[in-house]
Amino acid sequence: MAAEQTEAETPEDALGRRVACGEHRATVRFVGAVPPTAGVWLGVEWDEPSRGKHDGLHRDVRYFTCRHPTGGSFVRPSKASFGTDFLSAVRREYEAAADQDQDQDQDERISIWGRTLEWTAVRERSLESLPSVLLRNRPVNGPGEDGQILASTPNVRWLDLSGSLLCCWDDVAAIARQLEHLEALQLSFNRLGLPSDPAAHRRAFRNLKVLTLIGCELTWSQILQCAPMWPRLEELIVEDNDITRLHRPDRVLRELKCLNVSKNRLDQDSLLNLAALPRLEHLIMTETGLSNIHFPDAAPGTETSMFASLEKLNLSQNNISQWGVIDELSKLASLRHLWCRGNPLASSDRNPRTANQMLIAKLPHLRVLNGSDVHPQERKGAECDYLKMFGEEWLQAKGRSQLSQEFASRHPRYSSLVDKYGAPEEGELTKRQPFALKHQLLKITFVFVDDEARTPVEKKLPASMEVQKVKGLLARLLKVPAADLKLSYTSAKVVGPEYHMDGDLKTLLFYAVEDGDTVLVRRS
């Protein structure tokens, strides 16, 4: 503990206030003496618990409590800033910047939510014409004198108050009430006390469409408690909070189109409660620990009535390992975009590209996978390959009641693909090989169909070699561009059929090329 500090320097309402100690933020939990030292101390709970030394228990005396056992410290009031009002912070940030820009004639561009604003586009470069106010990590502690914000910054549409010293939603509402055009609000990394009457603040946020609350230590119940304040909200970002169970959002968030709950360890059994959001189009759930999804209202191969508007779903960096989860996603009638990177979801050959093909085949309406468009030819190839891949299993199950039911449960799209392309024939089926066989060397004979005078060439190639690399080898031999080559093969075991190898990124193992087979080489 440092030198003595007088109590006169401490605000009367310090308890519960937010303070800045350098770049770090904390909440005041205690004001008073801490014997045997003299003078006033602030007992603070740090936003970063690693900065503290205890939880408010000092020398066997309980002064305050913290959520974390090492989240608390005592600091002198002289080391803590209680901040400044909104308009003072705006003037300090923008009037000085405007004067400097006028002296140096420089352009200023501001990026927020993927949009760009330019100071040069702001008439007279005055506070009155500001379309955005960005006060990230500035020590804003409240609205200041009533009416002054409306008089000084009436045209603000985008506001960033992340990492401020605001301590309650009532103060946020007092600021927002004077920003009549406010559409987007960033409040990340704040600790805001809940409002006693959320509905009383509906007018303050009446035009708000985008709200970001990253790292605010909020539960989903607390978010729903605040939700009546945001009658027109369309996008809500609540990453990295204390959200576990997702309770049903009854009579709130009715206009919500995009929800981001990433980096929260979710109780996945409660996920279906989000289906109560009638207009939800985009759901982001990265790093939530998700491993399973099930829509109990729909049988395999049918459509669920839940999430009727959901078009975009991001499930990257989770624990999805079962293809049954993807079959459940196929029940979503509106799903067009899926992100699924970083999940332990694998095909039998352990090839990520094969897994992507299976995703496309299992999801009939998918147009974009992991940010890349799914083209019609890619879909056709994926679906035909899927038919071959599981055709042998389908033939074995066909006509046997129990086996057929089990197969249909594991492959609910298979029958519709048979209707679309026809049933696979036994000779063209892809045999599913053990993963270890990818290292096997295959003896392959290359026959050059367009040049009968050229002697066939025999090569030993790894089963894991991709078609594009085989074409590269042949291109060097024939001295022609690899893109001009088309490959197919005939089996040494099955006489007659010729199997086309259209996927450049697929392996010889994927096409079930075996030792002794013949590859036919043509110029396109």
Q: How would you explain this protein's 3D organization?
A:
Strands 10-12-13-14-15-16-17-18-19-20-21 form an eleven-stranded mixed beta sheet, covered by helices on one side. The chain has a five-stranded mixed beta sheet with strand order 23-22-26-24-25, with helices on one face. Helix 6 packs across helix 7 and helix 7 packs across helix 10. With 524 residues, the protein is an alpha/beta fold. The protein has eleven helices and 26 strands. The protein has helices spanning 86-104, 148-152, 169-176, 220-226, 323-329, 352-362, 376-389, 391-397, 401-410, 414-421, 467-478; strands at 18-21, 24-32, 41-46, 57-58, 61-62, 72-75, 84-85, 109-112, 115-118, 132-134, 140-142, 158-160, 184-186, 210-212, 235-237, 258-260, 282-284, 312-314, 337-339, 368-369, 372-373, 441-448, 457-462, 485-490, 499-500, 518-523. It starts with 17 loop residues before the first strand and ends with a strand. Among the domains are: 7-79, SH3 type barrels (Roll); 381-428, no CATH class; 435-523, Ubiquitin-like (UB roll). The chain is elongated, with a radius of gyration of 32 Å.
